[in-house]
């Protein structure tokens, strides 16, 4: 009886190992989708920290209704490791500093794949220049209006000691309001109390009615 029990136990163990091996042999996703959120082939600067801006991927033909979240970095780029197949890419509803069109981009992922997701921003920050004179950081820039439907409530200058700069990743901020002229704008910041040897700067604007800010490129200023 004892030998019979040991024999049955051995069979169970072998079946368990076989089952584990079957699961271990499942393929992992190996194709990298790399993309950017753009307007006229220009990237859109957004907040990169806190997974604030999200795209949503839906895979065709698998009956899965929940989207695959894809997070956008501060330069408008995104990446996702996927299985080969057909996908639909859209923005998350009411998320991002652009018109909430939520257009669908159809993708076929086969190996490493690149794509662009076009959006329509309300505004763009253009011709930004940063300069330091003594203890004053000066940012000069223009704002280009792309489409009607929203006004600018605030423009601001941010600095940080790392190359990650946005509304939650900064060590100083200066706001300007009551904006009437979008050309030749200027914001000044006193940096006399900032002793960090490396400093990065970025301009942002807050658009009325949107929870997400639009940002310029990031520049190392010292």
TrEMBL record:
InterPro entries, per database record: DUF3823_C, DUF3823_N
What positions does the domain DUF3823 occupy? 31-119, 123-220
Source domain of life: Bacteria
Please report the name of this protein according to its UniProt entry.
Answer: DUF3823 domain-containing protein
The organism encoding this protein is Bacteroides thetaiotaomicron
């Amino acid at each position: 009886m004892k030998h019979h029990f040991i024999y049955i136990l051995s069979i169970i163990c072998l079946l368990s190992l076989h089952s584990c091996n079957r699961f271990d042999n499942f393929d992992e996703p190996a194709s990298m989708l790399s993309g950017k959120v753009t307007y006229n082939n220009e990237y859109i600067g957004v907040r990169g920290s806190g997974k604030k801006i999200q795209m949503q991927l839906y895979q065709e033909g698998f009956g899965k209704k929940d989207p695959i979240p894809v997070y956008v970095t501060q330069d408008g780029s995104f990446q996702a490791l996927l299985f080969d197949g057909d996908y639909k890419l859209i923005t998350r509803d009411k998320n991002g500093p652009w018109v909430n069109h939520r257009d669908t981009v159809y993708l076929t992922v086969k190996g490493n794949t690149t794509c662009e997701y076009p959006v329509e921003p309300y505004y763009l920050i253009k011709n930004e220049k940063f300069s330091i004179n003594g203890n004053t950081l000066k940012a000069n820039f223009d704002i280009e209006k792309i489409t009607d439907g929203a006004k600018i409530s605030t423009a601001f200058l941010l600095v940080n000691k790392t190359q990650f700069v946005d509304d939650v990743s900064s060590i100083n901020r200066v706001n300007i309001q009551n904006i009437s002229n979008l050309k030749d704008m200027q914001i000044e910041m006193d940096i006399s109390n900032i002793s960090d040897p490396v400093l990065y700067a970025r301009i942002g604007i807050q658009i009325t009615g949107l929870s997400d800010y639009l940002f310029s490129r990031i520049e190392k200023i010292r």
